[in-house]
Amino acid sequence: MNSEPNPSNRARELEPIAGSARAPVWLFVLVAMLGFLSMGFLDNHGGGFDPRVYRPYKSIDELGRDQPATRSRQRFIKGQVAFNTYCASCHMKTGLGNPGNRVPPLVHSEWVLAERPNRLIRIVLNGLQGPVKVDGKDFDSSSMIPWRDTLSDDEIIAQILTFIRGNAEWGHNASEISREQVDPIRAETRDRARQWTVDELLNVPEQ
Amino acid sequence: MNHGPLIFLGVFFALALSWFGLVFEPQLQLGNAQQATNVVNSAELYPQRRPGLAKQGLEVYRSLGCASCHSQQVGQTRRTYDVMLTDAGTNRADVARALLKVKTGASAVELEKALAGPMPLRILKDVTRAAADAAIEKLDPTGAKAEVKITPTGPDIARGWGKRRSVAEDFLFDQPVMLGSQRIGPDLADVGSRLPVAEWHLLHLYNPKIVEKKSVMPPYRFLFEKRKIGREPSPNALRLPGEFAPERDFEIIPTDQAKALVAYLISLRADTVIFETPMTVAVAASTNAPAVSTNAPVAAVTNAPAK
Amino acid sequence: MSAIPSSEPPVSPGTTAIPPVPPAEIDASCRVPVLVLFACAAVWLVTASAFALITSLKLHMPQLLADCPWFTYGRLQAMQMNALIYGFAAQTALGTSLWLIARLGRARLVQPGYVVVGALLWNLGVKIGIFGIQIGDSSGFEWLEIPGYASPILFVGYAIMGVCGLLTFHQRSEPTLYVSQWFLLAALFWFPWIYSTANLLLVFFPVRGVVQASINWWYIGSLSGIWFGFIGLAVIFYFLPKLPRRPLHSNPLAMLAFWALALFGGWGGIHHGAPLPAWIPSLSTVFTGLTLIPLLAIAINWNNTLAGASTSWKESLPLRFVFFGAVAYLLAGALSIVDSLPQVSQTTHFTFFTTARTQLLLYGFFSMTMFGAIYYVVPLLTQSEWPSAKWANRHFTLAALGIALYVASLALGGIFQGRALNDPNKSFLDALHIGLVFFRVSTLGDLLMLAGNGLLALNLAVWLVRCCRACCVPAIVAAVKPQLAEVAR
Q1: DSSP string, C270-290
Q2: The pTM is what?
């Protein structure tokens, strides 16, 4: 059946006009329902709007929990980066220190490689002053600044210490340090404002 | 109409909402991404830039419109958690007792036998993260070493198109990023891992039916040159089987375009483990754990219930 | 309901004294530019349909034209889409927009000469662009394959035409705006924004990494949902009440649909398997789901407008086309919403289903609506009749049948293909061949569409020849006759 393609009655051609019927109420109810469902969907699947979260992970926490359990290697690498940032200016990237400027080396230092690290942690938190003997050599007046405030994150301290204790390039192979070892010492020494001297440190039992 | 400018602004912002969400915000979040030491347990940088020939190959890929049939995005629908025992320690009896508490579904006798067998041993299969962590906590005091094995799963991964999903970093240095939207041909995001041999690709490009009888991909003979054999056959000549070989005295040589395209295809890999896609792979020489292989044949405790 | 409208619109007090222009004069001012746009569009339509048919055949016979790099599948596929979108769809969109803006504002089209220049520039840009894709300079982005040396030409051509349209709107004598005008103005303004953003950020100053994919998908969604969507809706909102001589059911509902589509319409198309952080496809799903509201509002509006005018759509061919387009729009909208859910897209992504959905929108909705507009407008502009009413009717039958076959077969095939792809026990090629069985039917659909489009082009061509013989030849003869007489003496 053929329809007429040409417009009929061109003379009385009129433009359309819009009526004013009201929008049905149920449409607005539907808007509200869809809005609610959408928010639920975004909560579930939006990954918290974090750019690192991909489906099927729901949040950055879930993703973080799935990262591998052996963190020692990551800690080591991050410790190296942090060491270069904070410590290498005095102790040098090589870890050999700067005898002329009274900076003792870290390489083969018995303070660094001690089996129980609590004295080492104290040195980092509050600094060291006065004469110290490292690897058989005497440094008559060291002056290491306290890092308690600058390195307020114990995880970074743990990383740096893990690095200097385990750096194979220096021939070190001592155990790694975790923040759980740093936290209690920071709490214990929170009232201390002065730098340590070697005598005071030697009075602290090795733990 | 006094409201004119206001309405115009209103319409503009309404339309611009999608611009904010799909152009502006992604650019803020991902647009300044750098090559990063994101690789888990390694100081490697990821992603590596493509070598020069592969980069030219990307231009060939773009120019021929390969993305109209091939996609380059591996998807993932979920991940599975298994618990693997990597070291039974010295106190097997304690370990066996702990394992009984962990509800592996195996009896005490089976457990004793399994503990004497090869490591690593799968204790739990496809459980929730919480259950896996609880199992490991129970095993810790006994001196045994256990870990959670995370495996991404999904239809694409099950089909062998990748070991993990594709993420933003995989495409960091590509221009243009051609993710494709049709799979008239298989996904190519990880084709360099499963087909790393250049000769396969050259044969496939010359005539796909050589390597895949039911393929609907057209032959790209114009990427090759047919010429008379000189004093001796060229080392680059394709080794074509019987019915596809050219006449006597002729050989088929891939042009530079073909070689570049193949180099690009071989450079397409997406199997590095990074932060956004955690998964357990065979780790080379971790500090004190024995070498863990994810493909090791698992001992008796495979009938462990799921959750 | 309102009373029968008179042909003279009420002039509200305080408006400027631009007298309303009678329709015949408006049509006369639109004549040359709109006909140029339509004629060029018809040529591109046939070209695009032919490319589509060849592309379709290549999947059944991979050896077809395989040795010619200019016709390799990847390039041909891009050429087909770009010819359809920028060659045909964009030009008919502009032609009908300009005519509608002029008609609804009761003002003459401003500077028709410049519009012709713009149209010719646009065509030049598309020609260079398609040729560029053919020789291998494709940009690599879907729907944006036209190389960087051709897209600025397109932009300039559009700018000229768009400015003329805006000036026409500014000179309107009718102060109240009809629904179609909102849609048209929004669309007219939005295209340069998305086109320039996409080209700048993807081709000229490319952004880094996978953000390119996000912008590409945004462009596709905005182009199909906002630009083609709005212009198609404007045309349907115009013809659906006008041809059966009924008022549009509800202005408030249309306003709701307009604002809702402006907010939610441009987000479509990012599926959950994409290598983008989870929030991006989730936002895409959420907003696509919210387009249910404008879809329902539009459906109610159209349904109530046509209620009680049941037989008229069978009598008027333009109304048939427009009605088909309207149904296709609602169906395509519903399919998009369903397809945006992750459980569904897990099966349908990367299959022929997405092709079916895209073509339903582009061809089933937009092109059919534009055909209706063309069939209505051309006789008014030319003050004559279509050379063959029979061809016009055959066109409808072929096009409707073609697109129905195409969409139904590919949608079904896509679902089966997707399910097989998700089953790792089925080899990839087995899954593909399941889809290809349905694809054969869609090739037949392509053929039917090509035939139908050819009939339209033929109709226009015959009209052109007739018109030239009728007016140009005597005019030339009249101009040349005195010189000939001089020479003879």
Answers
A1: --TTSSS-THHHHHHHHHHHH
A2: 0.82
